[in-house]
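MODEL INPUT / OUTPUT PAIR
PAIR INDEX: 1
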Amino acid sequence: MTRRRGVLLDVDGTLLDSNHAHARAWEEALAKEGFAPGFDRIRRLIGMGGDKVIPLLTGIPDEDPRAERLKKSRGQIFRAKYLPRLRPFPVARALLMELGRRRLVRVVASSATADDLTALLEQGGFTDQLDTTVSGDDVDRSKPDPDIVATALERAQLRPDEAVLVGDTPYDVAAARRAGVDAIAVRSGGWSDEELEGAIVIVDDVAALHARLGEFV
C-alpha cells in the first residue's frame, strides 16, 4: 500500500458536533420562505451543500435568486443562534495535532460555505492545526460529487492513493470513492454502518480513530 501523505477531514459531524444545529438552521430559514419539509428529512441531507439541499427540499433550482436568499438566511441563523453552542468532539484537536506530528498534510474538505467553515474551525479551536481548507464555495458541486475532494488533493499536492478522507456521512464516502480516495467513516454523525458502506473502516468517532491511527496512516 502506498504510504499516506495526507488526511482530508470533514468538519460537521466529524470534528464538531454540529449536524443537528445545521438542520435546525435550515428548518428555520425554510420556514421563513413558507417551506416545511420536516426536521428529519432535512437532517438526512446534512453533509451536502446548499446547492443540493435547496433543490431537494423545495424544488427551487440552485441558480434561482430565491436559493441564494435561502442560503444567506440559513447562514445568518446558524452563525448567530447555533454556532456559539457547538463543541468539538473529544480528542478532535489531539487527532489533528498527532497528524501534524506524523508530518501528514491536514486538509479540511467540507461542503460548508466559506463563512461557515471559518466560523466552525474557530469555534472548534482547529484553525492552527490545519494546512489548508476547501469549502463548498470553492467548487461548483458539493458532496457527494467528488469536486471538494479533488480540489483538496490538488491544493495539498497529493495523489488519491496518498490520502485518506475522514467523514461521517454517506456523502463523504461517496465523494471520496468517486475521487479515488479511501474513506474512514465515523459514526458520530448519526448514520448507520449500512449507510456508511464503502468506507475502508467505520469507527465510533475521532477518539477511536486516534487510538488506531497507526493502522491507517
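PAIR INDEX: 2
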Amino acid sequence: MISRIASFLLLAFAAVVSSNAQTPDTLRAPGMHLGVVDTIIVIGNTKTLAYVILNEMTLKRGSVVTEEAIEYDRNRIYSLGLFTRVDITFDTLGTVKFLTVSVSERWHLIPLLIFGFRDGDVKKPYFGAGFLHNNFRGRNQKLYASLILGYNPSASFSYADPLLDRERRLMFSTGLSFERIHNLSQEEALAYGDYEEQHYNISASLGHRINIYETITAIFGFRVITVSDYRPGRTVSTSGRDAFPLATLTYTRDTRDLSEYATRGSFMNFYATSNGLGLAAVEYARFGADVRTYLELPASLTLVGRLFGTAVAGGEVPPYGRAYFGYAERIRGYFSTVLEGEDQCGGTVELRFALLKPRVIHFTAIPLPPEFVYWRFGLSLTTFADVGTTWFRGQSLTWNSFSSGYGGGLDILLPYSFIVRLQYAWNDYGRGQFILDLRRPI
C-alpha cells in the first residue's frame, strides 16, 4: 500500500512538471554569450546534404551563441541517427564569426541480420533478414524491407521522406506489411483458447513540419485482419475477417535534445483515429495523448515525467483494437502481466544519474571502415515509479483499479542508438522481479 501511495504522489508531481513543459526559449539556458554567428559551415558530410543537418539546428545566421545552445544542437543532430560523431565549434576569423559543424557518418546502406525480442520480452525471440538504406540520396530518406521469422513472423516494406518539399516543409511516408500475431487478449485465451491473427496493412502519410519542433500528419490506410479460429467477438464481422479503411490525424511537438535518451526538453503527441470511416462493419474511433518532460538538474541528474492515455468511442472494439499493458507498454513490477481494456492511462517518473555522460571514443588500434571508427557510450543509474490501468466502457475507476511498481537499475547507452536497461522492480504487493529491457526508454 505504501508503494502505491508513493507512486501516485510521484505521478501527481509528474503531472505538474508536464503541465509546465519547457519551451524552446527556456531550453537554451542563458550561459555566457560567445557572440553572434555570421555563417555556419558543415564538414564531414560525404553523403548527407547539408540542409538535413541545418534543419535540425536552432542556431541560425544572426543567432546569439552559447555553450548550452551548441550542446543542444549537437544532440539534435545526433538524434537524426545518421552520424557516429558530431562536433560544433564557434570560431572567429578576422571580423567573421562562424560555427563549424563537423560530423562522421554512420554506415547508411545496411544489409541486416535481424534478431530481437518482441515487446522487449526475452521469451519472444524473433530472427530474420532485411535491408535498410538509412540515408537514401543523402536526404535522410529511409528505405526498409524485412522478412522476420520466430515469434510473430512478418514481412514489410516502407519508405519515408522527412522533407518531400523543402519550400512547403512537407513529409511523406508509405508502407505495406504482413504479420501473423499471437493473440494478445489473455481474457479471450483463458475463456475460449488461444488463436492467431493475420494482419495485412497498407498506409500512406502526408505531414507538414510547422517549425523545427512541431509537425502535423495525416495518415490513411487499409487493414485486413483474419483469425485462425473464429468465435463471436474476435472480429466484428461474423465471417472472421475484418477489412476496413482508417484515417489518423496527429500533432507532435518535440523539443528534446537527444531523442534516444533526452536530458532536457519535452515531447507531446496527440492523435485521433477513425477506423472504418463509415464504410465497414468495424466502426470506432480512438483518441490518445502522450506527454513527456525532461528536467536537467544539478549533479548530472535528470528528472523525467510521462503521462499517457487512450480512449475509444463508437462501435464494437475487437481484441486486436484494445489497449494493453504487458506488451509495448509495461508497468515495471508487473512487467509481464497483461492488463487489457478499451481505454488506458498510465504514468512514469524517473530520476537518472549520469555515471558516464554520452561520449565518443575514437578507435585507432585496429583498422576499421570510417563508419565504425567512432563509438558512442553512456551509463546512467536510474530510480523509477510506474502506474497504470486499463478498463472497458461502463466500468468505474477507483484507486484500487491502478497497478504500480517502483525500483532502480542501470541504463547502458551503446553505439548506433542501442540501449540496454538492467533493472529490479517491486510491485505494490512487495513482490520483486529482475528486468532486462531492450526497448528505447522514455
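PAIR 2 NOTE: Residues 23-105 form a domain with the Ubiquitin-like (UB roll) fold (CATH 3.10.20.310).
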